[in-house]
Amino acid sequence: MKRKIIVGSRGSRLALIQTGSVTDLLKRANPGLETEIKKIVTTGDRDRHSGLDRIGVDIFVKEIEEALLEGRIDIAVHSLKDVPTEIPEGLRILAVTERLDPGDVLISRGQRLAELAPGSRIGTDSLRRTAQLAGCRPDLLACPVRGNIETRLRRVANGEVDGVILAAAGLIRLGLQHKITEYLPLDSFLPAAGQGALAIEGRHNDEKIANIISPINHLPTWWSITAERAFLEALGAGCRAPIAVLGTVDNTSLKLDAMVASPDGSEVQRASAEDNTSSPQSLGIRLAQKLLAMGVGKLLREATTL
User: Fold this and answer.
1) Would you say residue 13 has pLDDT above 60?
2) H or E stretch including 244?
3) Residue 97 in contact with residue 221, Cβ under 8 Å?
4) At CA 296, angle to CA 292 and CA 298, rounded to 5?
5) Can you give the pTM of this predicted structure?
6) How high is the pLDDT of residue 219?
7) How confident is the model at residue 52 (pLDDT cuts 50, 70, 90)?
8) Which of 21, 55, 78, 101 could form a disulfide with 168 if both were Cys (CB 3.0 to 4.6 A apart)?
9) What pLDDT score was predicted for residue 265?
10) 3-state secondary structure (DSSP) of residue 204
């Protein structure tokens, strides 16, 4: 068995913490294994100003995947929500770690979402969050904000914005849970596909590496994200509409909740479906077909014209 593997990662503090958590799992599962983390700068790291919904679907993974294909690294660790449903030929997702809290949170200067004054500025770089914010507090102003988590928290503290909406998992991994003002309810703020989970990506034909990685795959998370990503792909991977989907496992049952909204959040369609955990991909496809029959194709077309 290969005794040392090179792991590709973005270089941010959060990314390195996430990658370190994966290498720790791998070492526990494979005694004697050595790991080396190779930091790789991605397009999303270089472009700190453009809106994420405008600069491509693979901005945080493209350069890392190129390193995988060229053999410069053995595996890559990603935040799964950054990984497009269409993976380059020759690569595959080998495993996912146990999902942390998949939801969104509000960080403000003490006020919960319902307590913020009309006209308050809420920072987010996500059309999905913007649309759902408009659904529950249309009197608030969503404004674009980029940068790492610490940068966004500073923008709240210095009054540049009145609050920011972020993924709970990132704050938890950074040990910043104490900064969270409110955990936003899933029935109002459904997360992005894969949010809260980490993906380990490798080469399709590298079975030695696959055997090293497979023991850390968390099956309930795998079933959930397989359904979520099948749903996204069936709707049309890469479209810029606000789309949210979350799979939850209860014993052998898998439930999938989803939302598609117009870009401005004025129209929202929600649906859910349930099946057993043996067929997550078909569940995702079936829910996408259900929403398409409800007319979300119009919302998807609207998003492509932005």
Assistant:
1) yes
2) strand 243-250
3) yes
4) 120
5) 0.93
6) 98
7) low
8) 101
9) 84
10) coil
In sequence order, which residues have a C-beta less than 8 Å from that of residue 94 and are 6 or more positions away?
75, 200, 201, 202, 209, 210, 213, 214, 217
User: What token pair was written down for 1?
Assistant: 């068995």
Residue type, 71: G
82 catalytic, yes or no?
A: yes
Q: Which amino acid is at 237?
A: A
> With the C-alpha atoms ordered 263, 269, 270, 271, is the resulting torsion angle positive or negative?
negative
CA dihedral over 262, 265, 266, 267, signed as positive or negative: positive
| Residue 67 neighbours by CB under 8 Å, 6+ apart | 8, 38, 40, 73, 76
43: left (phi over 0), alpha (psi -120 to 50) or beta: alpha
Q: Are 128 and 244 in contact (CB under 8 A)?
A: yes
What token pair was written down for 200?
Answer: 């380990």
Supply the Cα-derived Rg of the chain in whole angstroms: 19
pLDDT of residue 71: 96
Phi, psi of 213 (to 5 degrees): -80, -35
Q: CA 216 to CA 34: how far, in whole Å?
A: 16
According to DSSP H, which parts of the chain are helical? 13-29, 43-46, 62-69, 127-136, 149-157, 168-173, 207-213, 219-236, 280-293, 296-304
SS3 content of the chain, % helix, strand, coil (to 5): 40, 25, 40
Q: What domains are there in the chain, each with its CATH number?
A: 1-98+197-217 (3.40.190.10), 104-183 (3.40.190.10), 219-306 (3.30.160.40)
Instruction: Render pLDDT for 203-255 as a digit per residue (tens, 0 to 9).
Output: 999 999 999 999 999 999 999 999 999 999 999 855 567 999 999 999 999 99
Average pLDDT, the chain: 93
Residue 46 has what pLDDT? 73
Which amino acid is located at 290 in the chain? Answer: K
Q: Whose CA is closest to 15, among 126, 148, 145?
A: 148
Catalytic residue among 53, 82, 104, 162: 82
| pLDDT tens column, 182-210 | 999 999 999 999 999 999 999 999 999 99
Question: Token digits for 35?
Answer: 């790991």
